[in-house]
Structures are given as C-alpha cells and as structure tokens.
Amino acid sequence: MTKPALLVLAAGMGSRFGGLKQIDPVGPNGETIIDYSVFDAFRSGFGRLVFVIRRDIEKAFRESIGARFESRLPVEYVFQELDKLPPGFTVPAGRQKPWGTGHAILMAADVMDGPFAVINGDDFYGMNSFQLLGHHLEAGGADCAMVGFVLKNTLSEFGHVARGVCRATTGGYLEGVTEFTHIEPDGAGAKFTGDAGRVQPLTGAEIVSMNMWGFTPDLFSHLSKQMVSFLEKQGGDPKAEFFIPTVVNALIGTGEMRFKVLRTPDSWFGVTYRDDRLRVIECLRKLIQRGDYPEKLWV
Questions:
Q1: pLDDT given for residue 223 in this prediction
Q2: Is residue 28, in this structure, part of any structural domain at all?
Q3: What is the mean pLDDT of the chain?
C-alpha cells in the first residue's frame, strides 16, 4: 500500500506572533518546528510531503524549509491565495484575511490520491501523535481520524488560545467539535471566557483538537460543496473563515464520514505568541536530552 502523505498548513500570516514563524529556528542547529514534525512523520511511516504556502513566501520557504527534505522524500507545494475560489465567486473588497483551514486543505485536492494527514506548520505534536496517526492511515480503512490532546497539555502561559473541545462516543468516535475561542490556564485546570465576559470553568482533562487530522481523498468533494455554501452565506464578511472542524461536524451530522479519536499522551507546544518561542526551545532541549530526538535532525 502507498505510504500516507503529510499535508502541512504553512500559509498563515502569524499576526499574533509578529513574523513569519514557519521559518523561525527553535532547535539547537537552526531547526524549525516543521523540521521536528517532518522528522516524526518520516519515522512514523509517512512517505510524501505537501506544503500549503503563499506565493509571497515561496522563495524563503523553499530555501529555508523545503530544501532540507527534497533529497529525502517527495515534496510538493500548493498555494493558498485569496482569489483561489470556486467558479462564480470573487474576493470581496477589503478582504485580507485567509479563508481558513478548510480552504487551505482544498488547495491540495489535485495532488492527493491516497490517505493523508493534516497538521499546522507552527505546532509541535510529538512522536506518539504521528505514530498513532500513521498507523491508522496505513491500515487503509474508510474511517478518518483526529488526534485528540488533553487540554491542559496544550495551553500557553502568555495569552488565551482557541481550542476545539471534542465530544467522543464510548466507541472512540468523534461526535462533534465545539470551538472555544478564549481559553486560559486557571490553577490546575483552565477557564473559558465567553460572550459578555461569562466564565466557564474547565477541568483541563477535556480532549481537544489541535488540527491534526487523518483523511481519505473522499474529503475533497465534501470540502468543495461546503466551501460554496460558506461563500454564499458568509463570503461578504471580511473576517469569516472556513474552518475544517465545521466541515467535520457537518459530515458527522449527516453520517457521511466517521472520525476515530486517537488519544495521544504527548504535550502540544507552539508559537501562538512570540514569548512562546523560549518555551518551545526549552521543551525541545529537554526532549533531546531525554533521547527522543538527536542533537542534529538532518545529518
């Protein structure tokens, strides 16, 4: 069977981080978070890389990131641009924000012909997470998958974060994802601040989505239809985004796809805020000392 592909979403603007965080070094030899994700994917059975980037960062991205992998496995690039829309739709005046993760994944429709995983380029997911997802995809079943993280293992001490809190059945299948847009640590747990400042306590043990998914190519026909529906209803809103959890919830609701929840013990970390970078560097240093990663990834 063909090895699964890894689709890396790396077209984000990085507005809160304050720069092009996809190519910011965090490892002891200049490695980026993407380097660690690709290293974990490579040793977990993935056989191909596809990057979703923007045209304006293509040269810097290829030179700083892509060139490291092109001698090791097949690498392709697809481009998320505001004007890459279904026939009949145009970019509304004033729109600058990308169309969201659902739109980003749709950009890879013409290059995916087998099972594939989706990750964010600026998130560290951990070796166990890639092994769980790689094993699921290599098994070749019809079910899709979501890697579920424990909420308390995904928070930032430098600001609030958005997390998709998951509902799973006793059989381990996802029932839905609810987006909580303002979650912060709170003692041993966490808290969500909603509309009008209303605070909802969270235990920290909730299972959340960190946008680490496993799909079959059947996803793309559903994505295309839902993208059209999104544009018809919200395309005029300059801040509206087409998120993959929205697509997943709709597919679960209609019974068209099932999503196995793969629970990982790994801790997520990333660079949502610029101050997160020092924590990422320290976490990676500890993982290297523990023997999870070599001092230099690409020898």
A1: 97
A2: yes
A3: 91
The low-confidence residues of the chain, meaning pLDDT below 50, are: 13-18
Please state the domain count of the chain: 1
Q: Is residue 16 part of a domain?
A: yes
Distance (Å, whole) CA 110 – CA 126: 29
What is the pLDDT, as a whole number, of residue 21? 55
Provide the 10 A C-beta neighbour count for residue 33.
27
Q: What's the CATH number where 218 sits?
A: 3.90.550.10
Range of the domain at 111: 5-290
- Residue ranges of alpha helices (H) inside 24-69 are 33-42, 58-64
Please count the other Cβ atoms lying within 10 Å of the Cβ belonging to residue 296.
Answer: 12
How many helices (H) and strands (E) the chain has is answered by 7, 13
Paired tokens of 178: 């609810």
Q: Quote the CA–CA distance of 15 and 296 in Å, as a whole number.
A: 30
DSSP summary character for residue 71: T
- The CA distance from 136 to 143, in Å, is 9
Integer Cα distance of 143 and 270 in angstroms: 28
Give a yes or no: residue 298 inside a domain. Answer: no
Question: What angle (nearest 5°) sits at the alpha carbon of residue 202, between those of residues 199 and 204?
Answer: 145
112-127 burial code (b ≥16 CB/10 A, e <16): beebbbbbbbbbbbbb
Report yes or no on 299 lying in a domain. Answer: no
The DSSP code for 92 is: P
The pLDDT assigned to 273 comes to 77
The number of residues in the chain equals 299
The pLDDT of residue 157 is: 84
**Three-class SS state of 178:** strand
